[in-house]
Design a protein that fits this description.
Elements (H helix, E strand, L loop, with lengths): L2 H26 L3 H7 L21
Protein name: DUF1127 domain-containing protein
Organism: Aminobacter niigataensis
């Protein structure tokens, strides 16, 4: 494996991680009801049935 292919792979992984971060950040900025509707895992605690707030505490 050449150094250029290694750098390209690292750059691709970085860009993918950055895109995931921005997507998660955008979804977390939506109201909790919308997060629950789209099935965002942090918006609704399926074990207790309570919505989670921005601090991660169950409300």
């Amino acid at each position: 494996m050449s150094i250029l292919s290694s750098i390209g792979r690292i750059a691709s992984e970085f860009n993918a991680a950055r895109a995931r971060y921005h997507t998660a950040r955008s979804v977390r900025s939506l109201p909790l009801e919308l997060q629950k509707d789209i099935g965002w895992p942090e918006a609704f605690d399926s074990e207790t049935g309570y919505r989670r707030g921005n601090s991660g505490q169950v409300h």
